[in-house]
Structures are given as structure tokens and as C-alpha cells.
Amino acid sequence: MSVTVDAVMLEARAGSLAKRSIKTTAKVAGIRLAIGCMDLTTLEGKDSHGRIRSLCAKALHPAPHLPDVPSVAAVCVYPNLVPAAKEALRGTSVKVASVATAFPSGQSSMEVKLADTAAAIAAGADEIDMVIDRGAFLSGYYRAVYDEIVAIKAACGPVHLKVILETGELGSYDAVRRASDLALEAGADFIKTSTGKVGTNATFPVAVTMCEAIRDYARRTGRRAGLKVAGGVRNTKQAMTYLVIIKETLGESWLTPDLFRIGASSLLDDLLMQYEKQLTGHYAGRDYFPMD
Q1: Options 1.10.150.20, 3.20.20.70, 3.40.50.150, 3.40.47.10; which CATH number does 7-282 get?
Q2: What is the pLDDT of residues 141-158, one digit of tens each?
């Protein structure tokens, strides 16, 4: 049975959580946590082996002059660049995530989607970020979307599967909740907000909706799935709000890279500058941090 979302109450709750103020030592800890839960991402047509090597160096040592800053959780790249990332990260804890299934549109045959996934895994991907067929979902073909996720999950085997809902295209919170429930039932290890390639990406109300689906699913089945927010997360205040949403909706045990990720690129630089500010009382210039 589908869950109906009270949009007014949802937006009020999300707005209230966004107003939480995190300061001093709690902010320092929050910034470190956000960095450690990040999927440092590059998904551009201009990506190259050199750019990937630079990104991986930054993922491992975000601020060489601040050795207590952790590595990020993963880098996220296109399938053809997985080997370059694996080589650069060999012997480290940083994982390699790869988008698949005709990212970002999801508009391709099942055969192509499975081949896309298999190629990324064969290249060494530790995690797969797939996109659902939004056209099928919005047309009411829920079983087809469910079966597709099940098939991709089976192809992944032990490799973790993040299912991208592209919430900015779903049209309503009810649809976001329905898509979240469907993906979780189909076996998603994570549900993810967005590709970052459409006009509307991660938002606080959508994150609350998806967290509530994860919470209810965990209570019903005993299986804990994760949340990945992606697209438009560019500053420390936004990142802190997502940490608050996770803690208040799912609990502190979800505040780990195993169950929470932030997919971003420019966010890392802002987190590092805010971290330096908390430690020293002044902002460091961007030249202090490696650029990818």
C-alpha cells in the first residue's frame, strides 16, 4: 500500500531541521563526518585519466596540511574511467563508485543496462549507481521498474547498488515515497536522490521523505539501507543540514559511510575552508587545498 505524504507537514519539518545551528566542536566533528561520507564526483564529458588521478589524490588527502582531515568515502566516475581510479586508489580505503544503466537518462534497453553494469564491475567498481526508468515509473509501470532494479542488483552480486530516483523529475513527494519504497523492496543498498544533471536535485524535504521510507523499511524488515544525497550540495550549511536530517529521522547509527553518502564535487572545498576557519579563526585561501 502506497504512503501518502503530507506536503505541508513535511516541508515544515524539513524547514525546522534546516534551522538547527551547529557550532564550535560539533561543527568541526560534523565537517569531518561529512568529508568522510562523501562520494567525490566527476561526471563530465571532459573527464580524462589525468583528471581522475588528480581527483583521487584529492580524495585521499583533501588537505595535506591538515593531516586529521579524513579521506572521502569514494570517488564516483564513468565506467570507462574506473580502471584509472582503481589504479590511483590501490591499497587505500577509498572506494570506486561508477554510474551505470545509461546514466543519466536511463533510456536504453535492459541488455545495454546490464552490459553497462557488468563492464563497470569487471573494471573493478566497488559500487554501482544506477538510474531508474523515470518514464516507466511515471507511466505507472511500477513492476517493470522493480524488475529492472532486481536484475541490476543480481548482476552486482556483492557490489553495493545505489538506486538513483531522480526526484526532481518525479513530480510529487508521494511519487518520491513510492519510488523509495519500490527501490528498497527491490533490494537497493542505497537510495539516491539525483544524478545532478537536471534542474532540481537534492532538497531537504525530499531527503526527509526518503529517510522516512528507509526508517519504515528497516522497522518492517530488519534490513538497513542507506541514503545518498546528490546534486546541488555545495556548501557546509547544506551538508550539516543533511547530517541533522539523518540523525533526527534515522538515528545516529546511520551517520556512517556505510549508510550515508553525499555526492558532490565543489562541496569539499567549502568544507575544508570552513574547517580551517573553525580551527584557526580565519579562512585559508583555496590555494591551500589541492584542486582536481
Answers
A1: 3.20.20.70
A2: 999 999 999 999 999 999
Instruction: Please give the model's pTM, rounded to 2 decimal places.
Output: 0.94
Q: Which residues does the annotation mark as catalytic?
A: 129, 192, 228
Which tens digits make up the pLDDT trace of 259-287? Answer: 999 999 999 999 999 999 888 777 665 55
Whether residue 180 contacts residue 209, with contact meaning beta carbons closer than 8 Å, is answered with yes
